[in-house]
## 1
Amino acid sequence: MIPLNDVVGLAAVIFAVGAVGVLVRKNPLVMFMAAEMMWNAAALVFVAYARSFHAMTGQVMAFIIIGTAAAEVGIGLAIIVSVYHHRHRLDIDEVSQLKG
Amino acid sequence: MIGFIILAIVSLVGAFGVIIARQPVHSALFLVLNILSLAVFYILLTAEFLAAAQVIVYAGAIMVLFLFVVTLLTAGKDDREPKETLQDQRFWAGVLAVLMGGGLAVLAVKFPSRSIPLSLPQNFGNLHGMGAILWGPDFIYLAGVALMLLTAAVGVLVLNKPRPASKPKARWEEGES
């Protein structure tokens, strides 16, 4: 069995890397991918604790996370494409005013 | 333990590749590497159903969607990173990352949680077990995910609805109504 604490620590590191990606990159697509990585890190923590506590509710939570991520990707990519059609630039500062 | 270290290195290479790669399509491929390594972690943590779902949903559906949009939007375009307008944003992001990631990782490794010494229950994490819990006591979550996905699909359709070409109205028409 692989060590639980190290898995949780690895998930924390992946979460931090994803957060930095959201903060540093300016391409909305790459920011979105980094956000996906943060979702994944959270799901990994849920699965690790489900294994540790022998409770499958953690895996149900990870299932919800995967479903939510799928819905979020659909909506988010639709928004990115729609913004791109208006502005013709992939730059997150194009929408910094939050209005058309 | 050696297997864990190799897997951790692979997933971290994927994670750093996502935020370092210059072209978005390379970021997407690194994200696939990260996701697949996490799927192997799920198998090692006896979550076989979730490993399969991870590969099918993430590495399959979501990444195909990403690659599709990346090729649609960035083909032949200038792929340089736009200039940063906020001052010191990158520096403070690095500081935040080291504090948050390092702090959380140290806390997680320093304070081990107690694990249960019993053997695993039957059908733990495989298709039978997940089906029994998702269609049994936790059915409400399954229904919630289904509703959410339906809402997302309808939302995408509404967002990308072709706008009716607005006819240029003559001025006297506006005044009459």
Note: The radius of gyration of chain B is 24 Å.
## 2
Amino acid sequence: MSLTTAHSVVAPSTNSKRIAGVLVVGYALISIVPLLWIFATSFKTPPDSIAYPPKIVFQPSIEGYCNLFTTRTRQTPEYINSLGPATGFCDETVRKRNMVIAGPSNFLPRFVNSLIIAFGSTFCAVFLGTLSAYGFSRFKVPLADDLLFFILSTRMMPPIAVAIPIYLMYRELGLSDTALGMILLYTAVNVSLAVWLLKGFIDEIPREYEEAAMIDGYTRLQAFWRTVLPQATTGIAATAIFCLIFAWNEYAFAALLTSGTAQTAPPFIPTIIGEGGQDWPAVAAGTTIFLVPILVFTILLRKQLLRGITFGAVRK
Amino acid sequence: MAEIRVQNLRKAFGEFVAVQDSNFVVEDGEFFVMLGPSGCGKTTTLRMIAGLELPTGGKILLGGEDVTMRRARERDIAFVFQLFALYPHMNVRKNIGFPLLAQGMASAEIRARVDETAKLLRIDHLLDKSVSGLAGGDRQRVALGRAIVRRPKCFLMDEPLGTLDTEFRDLMVHELRELHNRIHATTVYVTHDQMEAMSMADKIAVMNHGVIEQFGSPREIYDRPATMFVAEFIGSPPMNFLKFGGGLAKGAKEIVVQGARVTVPEVREDVAPADMALGIRPEHIRFDDASKLRGAIYGTEYLGTTQIVAVETADGIIKARVAAGIHLSPGEQVGLALSSARLSLFEKGTGRAVKTAMYEQTAEARHG
């Protein structure tokens, strides 16, 4: 007997698989093309980057990356010739344009600021979020529903709506242009998201786990640490990614509140100026490097995120 | 191991009273079952003994010590949950050893104790497996292992067989009882399943609406139900009730039901005229054409060695358990003969059983 006519009611048919495939590929193209464009631009020379019509095929160059990490000064060819052989690849590249490297640019410190502020605020938001979500989930908190609504209400307007009060407040408190100020601000914005997301995840974890641990001789904190937290990793990972993406990409507050020592990468990258205008390859190079941490973080937590999708789907 | 003494225990959640003034003693090494429909307060009572809920009033003594307000971890008890609460991020060995870890025991000793426990429960081949892949019965055994590994004062079990399928459940009922016979741990077991209760318990407390309706051995509870609720809750099919009126005088040995005289165990108290009910277990009914108590066959349920026969009487349907060999056809008129020594009398208003000679046997048996 042939089984070719048999079909499953749960497995998708070949046709629907094809349609799904086309949709996914189409969506992927739309979202990936701009990224590819940025990536390609970062390897163009400044003239290629503004060529019209745009160049799809071009001679790759790392000039953009050199320009991103250095500041340069224009010199006479005689002076450059008197310098002796170029010390490195970047040196050689910029000398062709009659320039010498004067020193490192501000990109690296700005990038480090971004790392400190984004990861710092993500840690704080997830830490506070996990504890308060656990509290809301397990204890009888007076006015719990009102408090949760209040926490949610902080997200009902764009954060930038309170930019002026925050600007004035930060100036008074001396938090302007400090990493601490930015960490506090991003934590405050993210903690509401963290509480709500994590409360959902912790509600799913049966109380019996902690009760069993508490009967078996553990304190509540130990029970939380050893039984609830390991089960909540999926939710924590998902929440951390959302918080990190927000804090990492945030532009408006960063532009408003930071200008010097605590400036993050997003307001810095567009200010990279080349000779006679925007240095697009350097901007593109900055953007490309800027994408890397989020990419790495997401790939590292991919397993947890995937588990998060199927969590609780089959059995409780 | 220790004795558990519950005195005037009470728990209210706002307006709702979950447990009302409970009193009972579970003796050292006894297997005690709290039985009742859902919402009767049995789980709340258990959780108060465990320290997961604090009582509104009353006292709990564990081995003579007052633990009423003590934290769960300071009570030295073990709890088996309905959903087992096995930690999915640990393997079987770590799950069983988890309570020992809390005591700061050396890892070599934990290993030895876990091995010993696993052998006792015949799960030593599963120790390195993940708990999420285990079958229901094995999960149950791991949960039991986690409870007995610590050698606590007593075991508390909250419907531990509730999620197993019938096949495993029967097996685990035997295993649990056998385990109890070997380690003689004081056990409080909560269930709504009378079969589990009857087959495992030394003592049963039947609860309803937060009140203990009856406390006694399975035999006492089945043969001499203290209230109509107990009579109806225990037994399958439940006890039949036939109503009759009028009061009872001390020393009476006969009542009139549906115009028929029925001999009953001698009444030992005076009862003012009220609505009364005669309680008859299905197996205490025989078919006898000479009897004046009559009815028509309504239907039969064949069970192999016996059959359950529904008989329509003037007071509704009553069910009799008779030998499977008797042939009966629907509509047939039959006379019902009752085993006089085994009948119960109830006051319908309060549901209370009237004191008769049959109930006194209990007291005599207990004291003598």
Note: The longest strand of chain B covers residues 16-26.
